[in-house]
Amino acid sequence: MSAPRKRKSEPTPAEAAHAAQQEANFAAMARGEIPENDEYRLKRARNNEAVNRTRQKKKEEEVNTSVKVETLRMENSALERKVESLQKELSFLKEMFMAYAKKENGAASTSQQPMQQPLSGNLPGPSNPFSSLQ
Predict the structure, then answer these.
(1) Cα 64 to Cα 19, 50, 57, 73, distances in angstroms
(2) CB of 114 within 8 A of CB of 102?
(3) What was the pLDDT predicted at 37?
(4) In 3D, which of 75, 77, 95, 76 has the Cα closest to residue 87?
(5) Which of 35, 49, 86, 120 would give a disulfide with 40, using CB separation of 3.0 to 4.6 Å?
(6) pLDDT tens digits for the chain (134 residues)?
(7) How far apart are CA 79 and CA 85, in angstroms?
(8) What positions belong to coiled-coil segments (predicted)?
(9) In whole angstroms, what is the distance from residue 122 CA to residue 116 CA?
(10) DSSP letter (8 states) at residue 132
């Protein structure tokens, strides 16, 4: 034989009242009615507050994100202008170097042969100041 099953203990009067009230609430909601007890109103009020806090937090996050996006766009635009300026400076310096190299090459020899690929290889001399620009 198996052991006898334990009986569920009888609910306390408060638990029974609570269960009955919940059943009444569910029945009223099923009929499309709004329960009229304080517990239901308290739960609804708490839920409404929680929903409002969540919505407010989401709005704040959206504002913060849009501010960050605008800041990054402005920073990107400034960086693009700087790149353009540096490219112009590099082009100017290359032209100056080419003019100087042509002048030096012309003064050293009478044949005045143009330099072949002046920035693509190692330049004569102890260091190449343009090596980082390649």
Answers:
(1) 46, 21, 11, 14
(2) yes
(3) 77
(4) 95
(5) 35
(6) 555 665 567 888 888 887 887 787 777 777 877 767 788 888 889 999 999 999 999 999 999 999 999 999 999 999 999 999 999 999 999 999 999 988 888 776 655 455 555 554 444 544 555 555 54
(7) 10
(8) 69-103
(9) 11
(10) G
Where does the chain have alpha helices with state H? 13-30, 38-108
The conformational region for residue 97 under phi > 0 = left, psi -120 to 50 = alpha, else beta, is alpha
Tokens representing 55 are 């919505």
Structural tokens at position 1: 């034989």
> Long-range pairs for 82-87 at CB < 8 Å and ≥24 separation?
none
